[in-house]
Structure formats: structure tokens, C-alpha cells
Amino acid sequence: MRMIPYNSFSDELNDVLRQVRESHEPLLVTCEDSRDNIVVMNQFDYDSLMETARIYRNPVMRERGLHGMEQS
């Protein structure tokens, strides 16, 4: 995952957000206190990640997904 310090992130916001959108790669924005770090990602990728997590939390859906992959 690419990383960028917060100051650079805020100074180059438009360019950085464009790069995140185009690359579909999450970006770690780092701060002096690592508890304040944030991850920036494309909404489509975020939605996909959340849907995958939702499926894996449901045992029936997880089994169907695994069975479907075996069929491929």
C-alpha cells in the first residue's frame, strides 16, 4: 500500500485523489501519531470489500461462494 504524509496529502489533495481513483490502490495517510493514520480508497473498491466481508460473515453465503468457486 502506498503511503503519504498528511501534510503532502493535504497539499496535493486533487492529484492524490485522482491517483487513488485511477489506480484502485488504497493509500495510507500517515500522521505523527499512528493512531491518527487514515486509509483513502475508491468508493467502488470500498463497497466491494464491504460486500465480500458481509458474504464471509454469513456461513450460508460463504459456503455458496466457496462451492461456486470450486465449480469454476
Features:
three-stranded mixed beta sheet, YefM-like fold, alpha+beta, 15% strand
CATH superfamily: YefM-like domain
Give the mean pLDDT.
Answer: 91
Spell out the helices and strands N to C: EHHEEHH
Q: Structural class of the secondary structure composition?
A: alpha+beta
CA radius of gyration is: 17 Å
Largest sheet: 3 strands, mixed
End-to-end Cα distance, whole Å, is 30 Å
Q: What is the fold-level CATH name, i.e. the topology?
A: YefM-like fold
Total DSSP E strands: 3
Task: Describe the global form.
Answer: elongated
- Helical amount: 55-70%
**What is the number of helices?**
4
CATH class: Alpha Beta
CATH architecture: 3-Layer(aba) Sandwich
Give the strand order, joined by hyphens, for the main sheet: 1-2-3
As a percent range, the share of strand residues is 15-25%
Count of all domains: 1
Low-pLDDT segments, ≥5 res:
none
